[in-house]
Design a protein that fits this description.
flat; 3 domains; 11 helices; mainly alpha; Arc Repressor Mutant, subunit A
Length: about 220
């Protein structure tokens, strides 16, 4: 890619892809320049250092997480759509949950816009502005944790090795003393099959939204 054709979005997209494939530690200005076929100086027009680059990746990735202010849907439905969009983008980009913890995401325009949208929806539900911020923060970290705690094998385990990983996990749990850990032994049996990942995410999003809706001052 010619240096003159580079855009901030193109650089961030390639950096995000590199992080997904090889981990966040692989994302450096020098490595990214090699990937794009340009000199490191060409990237400094867009990002002054690695910290700014990582923050730019997050800002780019979060661009799709926003509410439709013109929608006639109730605030709960619009907020759920934002949560679903956030979870979806983190599922698509395995490096993103780690980056969300590591960078100053609140300095990015996409995060600020998403936060502003969330605050508008939550105040429409009756929360005061400070409580709305607490709820928005809870939703954000619950969503990050949801993706990081996705059941089944770690991302580092190849798909072909997943059945063996589950078998070993099941044996480990079922070998625990049943008199001390009866529920953990029972849980071990669930590793006999691959988990229903889509059901997991639907259930967890329902759980988060149920808490938000139940504590909203405007709730019936």
């Amino acid at each position: 890619m010619a240096a003159e054709k580079l855009t901030r979005a193109a650089v961030a997209e390639r950096a995000l892809s590199l992080g997904d494939q090889e981990g966040v530690e692989a994302v450096t200005i020098r490595r990214l320049a090699q990937e794009l076929g340009v000199t490191p100086m060409a990237l400094y027009w867009h990002f002054k250092n690695k910290d700014e680059l990582l923050a730019g990746i997050v800002d780019h990735a979060l661009a799709t997480v926003r509410a439709d202010r013109s929608a006639a849907d109730p605030w709960q439905k619009q907020l759920r759509a934002m949560v679903e969009a956030l979870v979806t983008v983190m599922r698509e980009h395995p490096s993103l949950p780690e980056l969300m913890h590591a960078v100053a995401k609140d300095e990015g325009e996409s995060f600020q816009r998403a936060s502003d949208d969330a605050l508008a929806l939550l105040t429409a539900g009756g929360y005061g502005i400070q409580e709305a911020w607490w709820v928005a923060t809870y939703i954000l970290h619950a969503s990050i944790g949801m993706v990081q705690a996705q059941p089944d094998c770690p991302a580092s385990v190849p798909v072909t090795e997943a059945p063996e990983w589950r078998r070993k996990k099941r044996l480990m749990l079922e070998s625990l003393p049943a008199d001390k850990f009866p529920m953990m032994v029972a849980f071990g049996a669930t590793y006999s099959r691959a988990p229903d990942t889509e059901r997991y995410y639907a259930f967890c999003i329902d759980l988060v939204m149920a808490a938000v809706e139940a504590t909203a001052p405007g709730a019936a």
